[in-house]
UniProtKB/TrEMBL annotation:
InterPro entries found in the cross-reference section: Amidohydro-rel (IPR006680), Aro_Compnd_Degr_Hydrolases (IPR052358), Metal_Hydrolase (IPR032466)
Record bears the keyword Hydrolase: yes
GO molecular function, one term: hydrolase activity
Classification of source organism: Bacteria, Pseudomonadati, Pseudomonadota, Betaproteobacteria, Burkholderiales
Protein name, per record: Putative TIM-barrel fold metal-dependent hydrolase
SUPFAM superfamilies documented for this protein: Metallo-dependent hydrolases
A Pfam family recorded for this sequence: Amidohydro_2
Keyword Plastid: no
Keyword terms, alphabetized: Hydrolase
Domain Amidohydrolase-related: 20-135
Amino acid sequence: MHVEVARLQDIVEPLLDAGMNVVVDHFGRPDPDIGVRDVGFRRLLELADTQRVWVKISAAYRNRRQLRPDDHDAHEAFHFLKAAFGVHRLMWGSDWPHTQFEADEDFTHALELLRAPLPVEEERRVVLADTPARLTGSTLRDSHGALQRQHWLNGLPSRAAAIRSQCGHEHTFDSSAWITDNSQIRKMEGWSQSW
């Protein structure tokens, strides 16, 4: 869900009441002028108690003040989100193709944002691979190549079955191959630029 955090509660609560899981995009999009002091951001943190809301830590640049182009605000927001939701309900997104920020942003910077608040590699793996796979009911491979089924759609098994029947196959992620170094990032950027 891509909506400013000030409007989030009015939209999320009916979805939760209907039994749906919700993914909130871009740190919840707090007001850049007040950041984590935004009342809507505090309400987002309270939604963690539902156990049915996830947050994408993506596009930090969409939440910062133009006059201060550092990642302080994103790191501060991430600290609160991690404390409220835990790493198992946070996921990363590249926000490619970085619309309106194409000249300023790339995969390298987007991934670097994870290194400071998630210094432990296992936590990065959870945010980059495990959580999205669990949420979508996909299959992961562990570092030894063994399949690990993780259907975790909380009340939506029929939707997962419908997706699988439409696609004709299971979606499989190799979680041992998640992005770990800049050479993989450069390869992705080269692909995305030629796409």
